Amino acid sequence: MHIADGIIDTKICIAAHAVAMVAVYLSGRKAEADEIPKMGVTGAALFSVSLVHLPFAGTAVHPGLYGLAGIILGKRSFSVVYIVLLFQALLFQHGGLITLGVNALNMGLGAVSGWLLWRIGIIPLYVRAFLAGLAGIVIPALLMAAEFEMSGYGKGIRYILSASLLLALLEGSISMLIVKFFRKTKSDIIRT
Amino acid sequence: MQKRIFLVSFIILAVSITAFAHAVLIEFNQHSPVVVMRAGFSKTSAMKNAAVEVFAPENGALYQSGQTDASGRFAFVPDAAGTWTVKVDDGRGHRKTASYEVTASFFETQHVEVEKPQKAVEKEIVIREVKTEQIPLIYRLVFGLSIIFGITGIFYGLKAKKK
User: How far apart are the C-alpha atoms of A87 and A108, rounded to whole Å?
Assistant: First the structure.
C-alpha cells in the first residue's frame, strides 16, 4: 500500500509533500493537551500493526487501521498518520522517503474519510464503523491505483484493488469490533 | 481502565512481530559462473514473478531481464568483473535495487579438463552470501515506538504547561 521511491515523478512527490505538510499543520493545530496521549497511543498502534504480514497472491498486504484512526482521532488523524508513515519508511522501509508526501496524502485521506463517514449520524453505529474501516483502505488503494496508472506503472488497477478489498473488509470488521469494545466498557475514547 | 485497554491492545499488536516487515529483501548467492539472486519479503515469503533487470558494471547497460521464479529467484551469468546492479519490481509498488560485486577471482574457477580423464580438476564452487543488512526487527520496532511515545510526551508536556 505504501509506494516506494522511484515510481512517481519527483516533481509530483515534492508538490504532494507540500500539500501534506499543510494538511498536517491544519490537522494538528490547537490540539488540546488531553487529545495528545490518545494520538500517541493510536499512532503506536498503527505503527506496530503494519508488521502483521498477510501473504496474498504472491505479494503481501499489511493492515493500516487508518479508518479506525479517523474514528478515534477525528481530524487529528492526518498528522498522526504522517508521523507513523515517516517512521515506517525510516525503520521498516515501507514506502520511500521521497514519496512520503504522496503516501501521507493517500493514507491520510483514508483516515479523514473514515472520520467523515463516522460522523454521519443517520447511519447505524456499527455500519458506520464498518464503512469507516473499509474506507480507510479503499480510498488509499484507489488513490494509489490512480497514481500508478498516471505513472504508467504496475500490473493494473485490478491487482491492487483485489488485494486491498480483502484487507478493507477485514479492517471494517476490526473497526466494528473495536467500537463495540469501547462502547461495552463505556469508554469515552470514541465519540459516537 | 482505559490505560489497561490500550496496554493490552498494544501488547497484542506488538506480539505480531513474528511476521516480518514489508521491505523487499534481496540476497545473492554465487555459484560460479552463475549468480543467483533471491527477492522476498522474508525468509519464507518470496517475491514471485517480479520483473528483474540486470545492469552491467562498465556502462550500466541492460544486460539481462526476466522474471523471478516461484521462489523469488533469478539467475544471471556475469561476463565481467565489477559492480553489477539488479533491479526488482513486482508491479505492485514493491521495488528494490541492489548491487553485487563480482571480483576477478569469480572467473578463475572454470578449469575442467576433459581430454585427460585421469586428471579431472575439481570445479571449485564458491558460495558467497550477500544479504541486505538490517538491524533486527524487534530493535527497530521498539525504537520507533519509543520515538512516537517520546514525541507524544513532549507535546503533551508543552501543552499541559501552557494551561
Answer: 15
Question: What confidence tens digit (pLDDT) does each residue in B63-112 have?
Answer: 999 999 988 999 999 888 889 999 998 877 788 888 888 888 777 755 55
Nearest chain A alpha carbon to B157: A33
Strand order in the sheet with B34-40: B73-76, B34-40, B25-31, B129-131
Q: How far is A153 from chain B (nearest CA, A)?
A: 7
Best of B22, B95, B143, B162 to substitute, by most chain A Cβ atoms within 10 angstroms, is B22
Q: Which residues contact A46 (CB under 8 A, 6 or more apart)?
A: A64, A65, A66, A69, A80, A81, A84
Q: Which chain A positions have a beta carbon within 8 Å of B162's beta carbon?
A: 33
pTM equals: 0.72
CATH architecture of A10-184: Orthogonal Bundle (1.10)
Contacts by A178-184, CB closer than 8 A, 24 or more apart: A178/A68, A178/A129, A179/A71, A179/A125, A179/A126, A179/A129, A180/A126, A180/A129, A181/B5, A182/B5, A183/A125
Query: Closest approach of chain A CAs to the CA of B14, in angstroms?
Result: 6
The half-sphere exposure of A130 on its side-chain side, counting CA atoms within 13 A, is 8
Nearest CA-CA partner of A84 in A57, A114, A68, A108:
A108
Distance in angstroms (rounded) separating the CA atoms of residues B38 and B44: 11
Contact B148 A43 (CB under 8 A): yes
Q: What's the rounded Cα separation, in Å, for the pair A179 and A164?
A: 22
Neighbouring-strand partners of residue B130: B28
Q: Which residue of chain B comes nearest to A32, CA vs CA? A: B159
- Write a three-state SS string for B101-127: EECHHHHHCCCCCCCCHHHCCCCCCCC
Q: What is the pLDDT of residues A124-138, one digit of tens each?
A: 999 999 999 999 999
> Which chain B residues are within 8 Å of A51, Cβ to Cβ?
16-17, 19-21, 137, 141
